[in-house]
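Q: I'm writing a short explainer about Dual-action ribosomal maturation protein DarP for a general audience and would like to include a description of its predicted shape. Could you first generate the structure from this sequence?
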Amino acid sequence: MATPKHDLPDDDIEYVSKTEMKREMTALQQLGEKLIPLDKKQLATLKLPERLFDAILAAKKITANGATARQKQFIGKLMRDVDPEPINELLNKLAGLSDRHSAWLHRLERLREGMLADPKIVENFVNEHPSVEIQQLRQLVRNALKERELQKPAKAFRELFKLIKQYIPEPALPGLEASGPEEEDEE
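A: Of course. Here's the predicted structure. Afterward I'll give you a sentence or two in plain language.
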């Protein structure tokens, strides 16, 4: 007796072991657990399904250990239907590991240093961003140079960075909505 032939060739079937499936599910659960400490605003940028969003918010309120473990498993189950890439991007950004975020910060730092070294860069910045308060910008540059010369704390230096940061927004991560200004004081 001949064995029946299947419609699909064997090449189209991907065999995954039970162990591998468990590893993937555990990884998704761990990724979901990393979302629990985030605030609502950060979670909203991810465009998560409503059930998952609500489950994460509920997990924040649970204090009993057994209930916390069950809620984390539930979040892991809901994570199976979500693309993990935007979540990883956001978590990396928040951890300061994102290449895009680092490149943006370095760009701002180079611009700030350029403004301190060359007045033409200040003029170019004013031309590119006409809404900037010119007097405030020039005052911050003068004060930052004076701080450097007198080896004083870099208050104006940091203020100049914050001002530049207001006019050069961080590029949005793919799959995420643009988020508002973050509370970071990078130099």
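A: For your explainer, you could say: The first helix runs from residue 18 to 35.
Q: Perfect, that's easy to follow.
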